Structure formats: C-alpha cells, structure tokens
Amino acid sequence: MATLAQATQATRSLLKWGGVAIVVFIILRYLIFPIGFAMYRNLFPKKPPVPTTTFGKLPRIPFPSGDKFTNTIYTINTTTGTLPPTCLYNTCTKPQDPTNPLAIPDRLTVHPITKQTAIFSSYASAKQKVSDVGFTGEGKALTETMYLWQHPKVPGRQIVFDIITQKFDLTSDMASIGADLMGSPPSVDTSIDLATSFLSNINLLPKDIDETKTQTLFFKLTAPGDSANPPGANSLIPATSLSDSSFIQVDFHRKPLEDLPILNPYPQPSLLSFLVRTAPEKKLAIVEGHFSYKPLDKTTSATYPIKTAQQAFTELQEGKAYILPGSTKSSRIAIQKVYLAYYEGSDSVRYFLPIFVFEGENSFVAYVEAIQDQWLE
C-alpha cells in the first residue's frame, strides 16, 4: 500500500506533467498550427470558387452609335501611373471612392431586370396614371404596348406611355409654351420638388433615387428667327443662371449597385429627366418628362468573370469602346481614371451589366464591356 508521502509525490508529478501538456497544447494550437497552416496555404493557395455564370451567355450591350476616335493614341496618366491590377475573389480592398479603385476584381455580380408582362389591367392602370397628371380620356394605340394621350386643355402637350414597362415621354409644343411663359422658373429646390411630385402623382417614384446626385441645368427658350434656330422654330439653349433662364432641367440618378455607380448612355439628360417651368398649375409645370426605369430583380443574381483593366484598355485602343457625346477628339488622350460601373440604357437588355469606364482629359469618357468575351453572345 502506498504511503502518504508516495501519494503526495505522485500527485505532484501528475500536476506537473499535466501543466506541461497544457502549455504544449496551447503552443501547438495557437502558434505552431496557425503558422504551419499559413505556410501551407501560401505554398498551396486554395483556389477561389469559379464564377456561377447562372444565366449562361449574356447579351452584348447595344451601346448607341458613337464617334470612333480613329488614329487616337491613348496614354495612362492615373494617380499611380498604371492601370489598376486584378485582385482575386474575396481579397479586394473596398475603396472609399469607387471611381478610384485600388484594384479590379476578377468577377462581378450580374443582376437581372424584373420581367414585366402584360396583364388584363395594364391599360387601365396606365390610363389612371396619366389621368392623375391631367391626361384624361382614352389613349390612342401606337403599338401593342405604346399609347398616346393628348392633353384636353393644352394644345401640343402629349404623353406617350408604355403600358408594360411604364416608360413614358411627355412633350410640349414649344411655340405654345413660348407664348405664355411666366418669367423665370421656380428655384432649384422647388423644381426638384415639382419633378418628384410629378413622379409621385403618377405612382412611379423609384425608391432608389440618389438625392445627392440629382443634377439641375438652366435653359432658356429662343424665339423663331433667332440666329441659333432654323426659321420659324423655337429652341432651348443653355442659360448661365436662374435669372437668365426660363426652364430648369432636373436629372435624377440611381443609387449605386454593388457599391458601383449606375451610368447612362449620355451625360445629359439622364433616363429620369424633367424640364420644369413656372405655371399656374403644378401639373403643367413639367414641360417635358422622360422616364425609363428598369426595376432590379433582387431574388436572383450570378457572378461572371470580367476582363482585366489591361484587356479593356487594349479594346479602347482598338476602337472597341463606346465614346460618350461631348468627348473632345484629339490625336492623344491621357486616361486619368479607370473604374467599374453598371450600365443602364434605354434598350431591352434584361440585365444590369458591368462596364469599364475610362475618363480622360478634355471631358473624354468611354465605356468598354467588362464581361469576358466567352460569356457574351
């Protein structure tokens, strides 16, 4: 039988070696294993999951016809002096300013547009919407989905409305407008409120308008016979200030998608653009209105591999880019910004597709499709 002294000695040995085992475990668990795993991952990095490409091949973006800028030499004059490198999946640092990325991801998310189909009440719904802004009566069918309403009290004022997509174009006869102009337009803030109220009255105010990006421009109406106009025509020309203008153009823009800006095919006007003037009725304050809005389908999405910035720049050099109106043509153009965005056009493409944006000196802006060519139809 073990004596008390022997039992005490055995307990002390057990505690000592138990403590050593615990220390060894802690060193292995929190020091050796992590370092070894990190070294292993450095030597044998885990491959990122392949892009889902759920929607199969995607349609090419039908950019508007634009100037090709032939024989132009493009150089890189970014803040770093180089094009942004490519970063792998889940390793990209999110920049505070998406128009100044540190690197370009190797894939992006593609979002579909909510599919809109005709239902029994489509025409009745459209008729109610236009009636709420003064266009009463029955519409004249232009196509299966497009209808024209004439204003019952204002000659030359009309709205063409797509009963499926809700796209509309409201126009006015400028000669009639010129005859009863009532001085300067409302203030900038009031003009924005009037355009917003118009969309609310027609029940089409989008929830994703970025109020910080709303733009306004001043315009005035020139009289027939003015040197800037064809004989007998009225025309809008830019004005320098509110006091010098008769109209304010209000352009709404959407909030970013996946932290990237949503861009349109033209600098001005936007796809949600309204021309505002002073009028005795709020409904008549909107002289022109152009609304083309694609609702985002938030129920599904897919990732697609995108080009490198160098590949996109090569396509720009090869004349495979859409150059926006207003870009100044030159034999040499220094590119100052390269970044990603989503494109929203007034076309029938069923997705929000990513693009490379090249900005340069003299107001130069060009778009290049970002999806790798093997995933485009």
Keywords:
elongated; 377 residues; alpha+beta; 5 helices
Summarize the entry for a quick read.
This protein is α+β, with helices and mostly antiparallel strands and 377 residues long. The chain has helices at residues 4-43, 122-131, 174-179, 188-201, 309-317; strands at residues 73-76, 86-87, 104-105, 107-112, 140-141, 146-150, 158-162, 168-171, 215-222, 235-238, 247-252, 262-263, 272-276, 286-291, 302-305, 322-323, 332-343, 351-360, 364-369.
Commentary on this structure:
- The protein has about 375 residues and is α+β, with helices and mostly antiparallel strands.
- It has helices spanning about 5-45, 120-130, 175-180, 190-200, 310-315; strands at about 75, 85, 105, 105-110, 140, 145-150, 160, 170, 215-220, 235-240, 245-250, 260-265, 270-275, 285-290, 300-305, 320-325, 330-345, 350-360, 365-370.
- The protein has 2 domains: about 75-115 and about 300-375, no CATH class; about 120-290, no CATH class.
- It contains 5 helices and 19 strands.
- The strands form 3 sheets. A 9-stranded antiparallel β-sheet has the order 5-6-7-8-14-13-11-9-10. Strands 1, 4, 12, 15, 16, 17, 18 and 19 form an 8-stranded mixed β-sheet that branches. Strands 2-3 form a two-stranded parallel ribbon.
- A hairpin with a 4-residue loop joins β5 and β6 (about 145-150).
- The longest helix is centred in the first third of the chain and has 40 residues, at about 5-45.
